[in-house]
Amino acid sequence: MPNTLEASIDIAASPEQVWGVVSDLKRTPEFSPQTKRVRPLGRTLHTGTWMVNLNRADGYWYPTTSRVVRFEPNRAIAFRMTENHTVWSYNLEPTANGGTTLTQRRDVPAKLPWWLQKAIDTAFGGEEHFEAALVDGMHQTLDRIKVTVEH
User: What is the pTM of this model?
Assistant: First the structure.
């Protein structure tokens, strides 16, 4: 499994406007085709905040937990999944025309736990299918964020 999957999009809005949507993690299900629920634990979002998530892929429902490992307002947010240690992030870069390039990224540890690798192989059709679906989902997510922010 590669260490990184990544997708980017240019949005005609300031980093502050994009951040207002991206950092509201409860809204993730509006944008992500796989994430059905995100519940940050606590009153404010910051590095160290725990989240409980519910996801659905290929007909399977599965819960996950994660923790915010990077929180830089108007620049970046990243969270590490407890179950597999992958890190999902959004990075915001201002563009010359006053817009923002938004990048969603998934970084994978050197080796996944054996049980997760087995689940990917059996339930999700193998790594190639699983990762193609993730990249497709990243593009859908970014497209939906763009439409929301620009309108």
Answer: 0.85
H or E segment and range at residue 135: helix 127-150
Residue 74's identity, in one-letter code, is N
CATH code of 4-150, in short, is: 3.30.530.20
As given in the structure block, the two tokens for residue 87 are 């890190």
Residue 97, CB half-sphere, CA atoms under 13 Å: how many? 6
Q: Nearest-CA neighbor of 53 among 89, 26, 74?
A: 26
Beta bridge partners of 61: 56
Q: Residues 14-71: pLDDT tens digits?
A: 999 999 999 999 999 999 999 999 999 998 999 999 999 999 877 889 899 999 999 9
Q: Which residues contact 34 (CB under 8 A, 6 or more apart)?
A: 55, 56, 57, 133, 134, 137
